[in-house]
């Protein structure tokens, strides 16, 4: 899907202004989602450097000569629909500009270390006195309180500390087990950003009733623990420590990968009826009436017996043959796609999960991005700004929001308080 820069102000959150003091992934994920839904996002970046992820490459977007630009794929993944304003927070003049921008903002999102913004006079207590309607979302590694509050938090650390690595990977007794394994994307960051978005939207609804904003304290670690979901609840109920099962499921069998004659595929039998259908399709009806396997609870208890039997069966056909056969029988199954497979898939293409947006430094004239999965019937997601070049909107935002003159902006630029880049 190739997009044009749609007119702003038509999304579900149009009319709202978000001051984005976040960087890396959790905060930018939240603010990109708000921007996709129509909010105006003003992203504050450090002059000369910008968001940390701008340097997290390769790969980088290529210019017309095939050379790397300053826009990494990592940065591009979570910063569309934003304006970039480069302000030096180390200067009092820069901090005062932020305070003035916060005076008219609806939402502020930040992920500084606990206490840093209080030293700058940019904390919730200070800014909310100036703007009582401000919704101020603090994203941190460990929260604003507690013994770990001063620590810095990164996704990898949180995946380890939050338990998800302990249940990811091959079983520990597997001959090729490499031990605990992290998820292949920064899922702790992403999920924290999603929870932050939910909190912000809840605070907006509360403000409709009270007229005042509030402080949202959300941490990567809390979010990670929250999405342990069934595995965390299983421990709390049973007292037994969940262990990694590779691609297996702790409470559903068969629900994992199986070898075909050519490659591996997924079999996801969710109930006893589906297991009976699988057995019929596979010519193994006797398994569905075997008292060891007839019910899911029995299949879970006897998985070590059942799985090798099923593996012998699945090796008799190719993955494509199994998928065609089982889909026809109403048994959930599917391939294991690579990322190139994903973007070539007709369903993904139909759902417009890849979009192209015009970009000023891209040699091709546009940048490919992953689409937003939300499909709203009346207020659809809009793609109106490609991920901005650092400082691209400094002058225009300060002029429109703070009514600074060209002379005042030039003085701030000369003093190193702000950076404006014309691309």
Short description:
Helices cover 38% and strands 15% of the residues.
CATH class of the largest domain: Alpha Beta
CATH T-level fold name of the largest domain: Rossmann fold
Give the N-terminus to C-terminus distance in angstroms: 25 Å
Shape descriptor? elongated
Question: What structural class do the secondary elements suggest?
Answer: alpha/beta
Q: Give the name of the CATH superfamily of the largest domain.
A: Crotonobetainyl-coa:carnitine coa-transferase, domain 1
Biggest sheet: strands side by side, in what order?
8-7-6-1-2-5-14
Mean pLDDT: 96
Number of helices: 18
Share of residues in strands: 5-15%
List keywords for this structure.
single chain, 423 residues, alpha/beta, Rossmann fold, formyl-coa transferase, domain 3, 2 domains, 7-stranded mixed β-sheet, 3-stranded antiparallel β-sheet, 18 helices, 14 strands, 15% strand, elongated
Report on this model:
- This protein has 423 residues and is an alpha/beta fold.
- It has two domains: 287 residues, Crotonobetainyl-coa:carnitine coa-transferase, domain 1 (Rossmann fold); 77 residues, 2-Layer Sandwich (formyl-coa transferase, domain 3).
- The chain is built from 18 helices and 14 strands.
- A seven-stranded mixed sheet has the order 8-7-6-1-2-5-14, sandwiched between helices.
- β12 and β13 form a beta hairpin.
- It starts with 16 loop residues before the first strand and ends with a strand.
């Amino acid at each position: 899907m190739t997009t044009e820069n749609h007119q702003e102000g038509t999304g579900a959150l149009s009319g709202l202004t978000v001051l984005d003091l976040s960087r890396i992934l959790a905060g930018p994920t939240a603010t990109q989602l708000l921007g996709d839904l129509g909010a105006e996002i003003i992203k504050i970046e450090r002059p000369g450097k910008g968001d940390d992820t701008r340097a997290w490459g390769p790969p980088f977007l290529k210019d017309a000569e095939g050379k790397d630009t300053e826009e990494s794929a990592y940065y591009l993944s979570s910063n569309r629909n934003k304006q970039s304003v480069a302000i030096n927070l180390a200067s009092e003049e820069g901090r005062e500009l932020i305070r003035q921008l916060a005076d008219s903002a609806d939402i502020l999102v930040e992920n500084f270390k606990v206490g840093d913004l209080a030293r700058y006079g940019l904390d919730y207590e200070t800014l909310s006195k100036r703007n009582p309607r401000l919704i101020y979302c603090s994203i941190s590694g460990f929260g604003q309180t507690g013994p770990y509050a001063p620590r810095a938090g990164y996704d990898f650390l949180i995946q380890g500390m939050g338990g998800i690595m302990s249940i990811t990977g091959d079983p520990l007794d597997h001959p090729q087990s490499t031990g605990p394994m992290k998820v292949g994307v920064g899922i702790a960051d992403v999920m924290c950003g999603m929870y932050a978005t939910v909190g912000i939207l809840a605070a907006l609804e509360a403000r409709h009733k009270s007229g005042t904003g509030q402080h949202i304290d959300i941490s990567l670690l809390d979010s990670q623990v929250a999405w342990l979901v069934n595995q965390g609840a299983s421990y709390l109920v049973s007292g037994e420590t969940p262990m990694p099962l590779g691609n297996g499921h702790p409470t559903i069998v068969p629900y994992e990968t199986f070898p075909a004659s050519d490659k591996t595929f997924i079999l996801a039998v969710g109930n006893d009826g589906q297991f009976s259908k699988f057995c019929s399709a596979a010519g193994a009806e006797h398994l569905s009436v075997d008292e060891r396997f007839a019910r899911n609870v029995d299949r879970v208890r006897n998985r070590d017996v059942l799985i090798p039997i099923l593996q012998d069966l699945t090796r008799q056909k190719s993955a494509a043959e199994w998928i065609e056969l089982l889909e026809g029988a109403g048994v959930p199954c599917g391939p294991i796609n690579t990322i190139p497979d994903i973007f070539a898939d007709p369903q993904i293409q139909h759902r417009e999960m890849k979009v192209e947006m015009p970009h000023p430094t891209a040699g091709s004239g546009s940048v490919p991005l992953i689409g937003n999965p939300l499909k709203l019937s009346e207020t659809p997601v809009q793609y109106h700004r490609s991920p901005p070049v650092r400082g691209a909107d400094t002058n225009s935002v300060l002029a429109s929001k703070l009514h600074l003159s060209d002379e005042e902006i030039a003085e701030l630029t000369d003093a190193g308080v702000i950076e404006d880049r014309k691309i």
